[in-house]
Every structure is written in structure tokens, then in C-alpha cells.
Design a protein that fits this description.
Layout (H helix, E strand, L loop, with lengths): L3 H31 L5 H20 L2 H15 L3 E5 L12 H6 L19 E5 L5 E6 L10 H43 L17 H49 L8 H27 L6 E4 H15 L4 E5 L5 E5 L1 H18 L5 E8 L3 E7 L34 H11 L3 E6 L5 E8 L6
Parallel strand pairs: 5-7
Antiparallel strand pairs: 1-3, 2-3, 4-6, 7-8, 8-10, 9-10
Helix pairs in contact: 1-5, 2-3, 5-6, 6-7, 8-9, 9-10
């Protein structure tokens, strides 16, 4: 089968996803890099603090320097100090000029700040004397990356959403263009334009939608031919009926004129037979051509079906006691023998699986005004109240039942519900007061009337 549309969509989604990931990664890295530096105005403020501290230090007024430091710490709610660094090499080692020039007690205002550290770094401004340093714990108001969470949210939510919307629009336009052509063609066809076709309108496109257009064209051609055939059939029937009708009309005229009718009555009878056969054959042909019937409705005896299922269950579970309370006859019309047999067999087998050895499984069938209620009660562990509906989900197994007795893959009850509903009934579960689980099935007597 041609899967070009699949590969085109896969390529579009894959390339769009790669572009999205690359864009998020690139913008995220660039944004974080640019937001990791102290703002220029804050750098200048810290530098001015350093110059002020250096001026007060050089004036020799330590009290003024101390008061200024206290005011700065109180104003900025931070820590600040002026310190001396005397580095003395030991054991005959030597300090290089590069080390002395690059030595710092804190960070330079131009350095990158690590945004993921919870604590603010200590910033440094070195005086003209490289052994004297002004240190300040970076105030919270100067910490870079204030809007980093919002930016990351934009990059992780808004940008992907925008890219995905654009990608969806591209895919939508690519898919809807031929579908609109199909919609227009279908509308024209229903309005009587039997010659409408779609494939030629799609140009050189060669994918699944083009194949759909070709299928539509074949359907339109076949349906158009069928309609024309029926029209021709009706026209031919009308033409064929004229001859026997004319003969009958002539025979009736002869009878009215008193002409001998002994040889005309058999002719009239033969012409009527020809007309009847012609009409019946024509109607049958039209029905077969138009309806293409498929007869699948069944009538069955639910009691006989249950007897057969219980016989198999007794053979399969000889260490269980199966007690059945069934009416002599329980007829279902418009049902499915195969679907009900498999559904009920799954319910009974499930009850036997979770009933301990030597336990009893009770099967009861009662009739009401519109259908039959089948109850299957086991002596197993039951299920918690919040799981009574979940046990009908595919692959779900109740917590109480896990490990209690090995069984299938959790598909039996989900399949049973779908099969019972397909025959017009329903199935539900409830916990018994005496322990165990009760499965209740309802099936309509006559689905055709319902």
C-alpha cells in the first residue's frame, strides 16, 4: 500500500520536532548566558562603592569608613567590608606576577554569576593598592536572572505551543485540500451530477489521499453505472410490458366484439404469466443490485446454550460445584449465538477461576417482561467497590484477585461486556454480602422489536 502521506507527515513532524528542540536549546543557552551577568548599572554602582571605600580608606578616617560601611549594609540589607590580603609564600615557593594580578577574594563585577546557586556571591573591587579590597555580598536586587523562570516558561510552553500550532496548520492545510475536493464532489454527486470526478483535481499528488480520491472515482463510476443500469432496467421493463399488454388489450377487444374467445383465453393467461414472471424477476434483480443483503440474525434458546456451556465448565473444573437454576426454555430472537456463547463462557470461567477448590458457582436465569437476567455468583475474594467498573477495562486485574488464582490477561470480562452490548444487553458486577462476586447480565428477548 502507498504510504507516502505517512512518510511525509513523519518527516514533517520529525523535522519540526528537531527544529523545536534545537531552537529551545539554543535560545535557552543564549538567554541564560546573557542573563548570568550583573546589569551594567549595578556594575557601576558596585564600582562606585569601591571607589568611595577607597577614598575613605586613603583619607585615614577609619571611623568615617566604618560608619559608611554600616550605612551601606543597613541600606542594602547585605554584608560589606574592606580587608587586606597579605599573601606570604612558604617553603621557598614563589608567587608569579600572573598570580598576583589575578588574585581575588571575591568575584569581579564583570564575571558570570551562577544562577542556580541559592546564595549570592561576594563581589570585590580592588583598590590601587592590590592588597586592599572592598568586599560586598551581592544584594538581592542586583542578582541577575530575576526573570529566568518566566523566560524558561515561555521557552518551554509558549514557544513549543507556537511551533506546534504552525506545524498543525501546515499538516491541516496539506490534509484538508484534497478532503475539501472530496466534499465538493460528494455534494455534487448527491445533487445528481453523476459524472463528477476528483483525482484529476489533485494534480501530481500521489499519496493515501490521492488513493482515496481514486477510490471515490471508482465508487462514483460504479454507482453512476448502477443508477444508469436501473434507469435502463425500468425503461426496458416498461418497453417489454407494452407487448403483452397490447396483446391482452387486443384479446379483450375481440371478446367485447363477440369474436370466438376459445383460442384467446389461453393466450391471455399466457401473457399474464409472462408479465408476472417479468415483474418478479425484475424486482428481484433490482433488490439484489441495490441492497446486496447479508442475513445474519439468529434465534436461539438461551437455556440450551447455558446447558452446553455448563457441561463444558463442569468438565474443565471438576473440583467445583456448579448449581444452575434455569427455565425450561428461554428464546432469544435477533441475537448472536457465537457472541453470547463466548461472553457467557468467559463470565462462568472467570467465576470458576476465582472460586476456591470445592467451592460453589451458582448460575441463575430469570425472565422479565422484555428479556432475561442471568446471574453468575462465585465464592472468590471479590473486588473493592471502586474497582467494580474497572474490571471491565482491558488488561485490568483487581487488586484483591492478583495472585489469588492464575487466570488470563484481563481481557475476558472486557470482551464479554462488548459482546453482550453488541447483542443489545448489558453486564455489571457487584460484591455479594456473603463474599464473592456477582455478575449480572441482561439480554433482550426480541432485539428486532426493541
Amino acid at each position: 500500500m502507498n504510504r507516502r502521506l505517512l512518510w511525509k507527515l513523519c518527516a514533517t513532524v520529525a523535522l519540526g520536532t528537531l527544529a523545536l528542540f534545537w531552537t529551545i536549546s539554543f535560545l535557552g543557552a543564549e538567554t541564560e548566558q546573557k542573563m548570568s551577568f550583573i546589569a551594567e548599572e549595578h556594575q557601576q554602582t558596585i564600582e562606585s562603592w569601591g571607589r568611595t571605600a577607597e577614598r575613605l580608606y586613603q583619607s585615614g578616617d577609619e571611623q568615617a569608613l566604618s560608619r559608611w560601611l554600616e550605612e551601606l549594609q543597613t541600606q542594602e540589607q547585605t554584608w560589606a567590608a574592606v580587608v587586606r590580603s597579605d599573601i606570604q609564600p612558604l617553603a621557598g615557593s614563589r608567587l608569579t606576577d600572573r598570580f598576583r594580578e589575578g588574585f581575588r577574594l571575591g568575584r569581579s563585577v564583570e564575571w558570570k554569576i551562577h544562577l542556580y546557586f541559592s546564595e549570592n556571591p561576594i563581589m570585590e573591587v580592588t583598590f590601587a593598592d592590590p592588597a586592599i579590597h572592598f568586599l560586598v555580598l551581592l544584594p538581592d536586587r542586583m542578582r541577575p536572572g530575576t526573570y529566568l523562570p518566566q523566560v524558561k516558561l515561555m521557552l518551554k510552553v509558549a514557544l513549543p505551543l507556537a511551533v506546534l500550532v504552525i506545524l498543525c496548520l501546515v499538516i491541516y492545510r496539506h490534509l484538508m485540500s484534497p478532503l475539501r475536493q472530496l466534499e465538493i464532489a460528494t455534494r455534487q454527486f448527491t445533487e445528481g451530477n453523476l459524472g463528477v470526478r476528483v483525482r484529476a483535481l489533485l494534480g501530481n499528488r500521489n499519496d493515501e489521499l490521492a488513493a482515496l480520491a481514486e477510490t471515490f472515482d471508482r465508487m462514483a463510476e460504479r454507482t453512476g453505472n448502477l443508477i444508469l443500469t436501473q434507469r435502463r432496467l425500468i425503461a426496458d421493463l416498461s418497453h417489454e410490458l407494452r407487448t403483452p399488454l397490447a396483446r391482452i388489450e387486443m384479446a379483450v377487444s375481440c371478446v367485447q366484439e363477440g369474436i370466438d374467445t376459445q383460442h384467446l383465453l389461453p393466450r391471455i393467461q399466457r401473457e399474464c404469466g409472462i408479465m408476472r414472471n417479468l415483474v418478479e424477476d425484475t424486482l428481484t434483480l433490482a433488490w439484489l443490485e441495490n441492497e446486496k443483503p447479508s442475513l445474519g440474525e439468529e434465534t436461539l434458546d438461551l437455556t440450551d446454550l447455558l446447558d452446553s456451556i455448563l457441561d463444558d465448565a463442569r468438565y474443565e473444573f471438576p473440583d467445583h460445584t456448579l448449581v444452575a437454576e434455569l427455565p425450561d426454555k428461554a428464546e432469544l430472537r435477533g441475537s448472536s449465538h457465537r457472541a453470547l456463547a463466548q461472553a457467557i463462557e468467559n463470565v462462568v470461567r472467570n467465576a470458576c477461576n476465582y472460586t476456591p477448590v470445592g467451592g460453589t458457582v451458582r448460575i441463575t436465569l430469570r425472565a422479565d417482561q422484555r428479556g432475561y437476567t442471568l446471574e453468575v455468583a462465585d465464592q472468590g475474594p471479590g473486588v473493592s467497590a471502586d474497582q467494580l467498573e474497572l474490571i471491565f477495562k482491558p488488561f485490568f486485574r483487581a487488586v484483591k484477585a492478583r495472585g489469588y488464582r492464575p487466570s488470563g490477561h484481563g481481557l475476558g470480562l472486557s470482551l464479554a461486556r462488548r459482546q453482550v452490548e453488541a447483542t443489545g444487553g448489558w453486564i455489571q458486577a457487584e460484591n455479594r454480602a456473603a463474599g464473592g462476586l456477582l455478575m449480572r447480565l441482561w439480554l433482550p428477548m426480541n432485539r428486532i422489536e426493541n
